[in-house]
Amino acid sequence: MPSAGVYGSRLASRFRLEAAPVLVSKTLQKTEVAVTNLQLPAADHRLTEAIPHEDAYLVAVMLRDVLEHELWLDGRAIPRSPFLAGSTVFYDLKRNPIARCLSPFNTLFFYVPRGVFDLVADQAEASHVDELNYVPGEAIADALLHGLARTLLPALDRPDEVNRLYFEHVALAACTHIAHTYGGMVARSSKIGVLAPWQERRAKALIAANLQGDLSRAQLAAECGLSADYFGRAFKRTTGTSPHQWLMQRRVDVTKDLLRCSNLTLAEVAVAAGFHDQSHMSRVFSQATSTTPASWRRDFDAGDARRCLRRHQRNARATKDVVPA
Prior knowledge:
The protein is of the alpha+beta class and 325 residues long.
């Protein structure tokens, strides 16, 4: 049976827009988590069409200011205030949200079924989430969700070149952050001096989702419920490397994947992999592999290249299968 999830064209149609860029992940026991980028170029004084009742959330990350808007939940008007770029707004799809868009917008919507939070908690060996704690219709300054959203924009622009593992890391990081920050998810006790499995997974997922290195050690530690100093020591004892070294290795891994499976220039690969520029990429890559990115790409086996191409073609077909028409 097709999914009834409100994302992609099903979400765009509520705003009378054409099909919107969308990415869909089914890593959590085949439960869909999706990300849709909606852009309204001009104000629309009509009400949005009703969204089917569903036990799920839309988590909207504002990529530009929305100065004028109106919102109704369960038929009742909600006090309104401007939504500034970088802020996050939660919409419970059980409450029949209806809006009037009096300003243009550019918004990234995370579609998250409520059951995902239990799956995240089970993976994190943590307590289950009952309800998310937020004020309906109120914008929240959430730098981490904004950062995760912005890392997905290039993937939404070029879905055929998406590293699916990377997107799944970002989706999991976003759901885990929401469960922890707004759902009060609390981890069970772990061994002293090392990260618990859920903390290691969360830290690695967040680092992988922020290859530009925008997250500080203190932010990573807070996501794991630890102090910055303890987190740094525990991460190294658990993984054998510091968070910075793990980030550098992840950048190298992404660089290899892009060199194998894309036609991006070296400068474009450097940016996509989180490096400051091509020179920075070449220096780090050479230290890790004893060869330059250009030489590595030239020496790449043609048979592996064909297998890589077939894998991307399969990914592209799979994406079409799950993206609404």
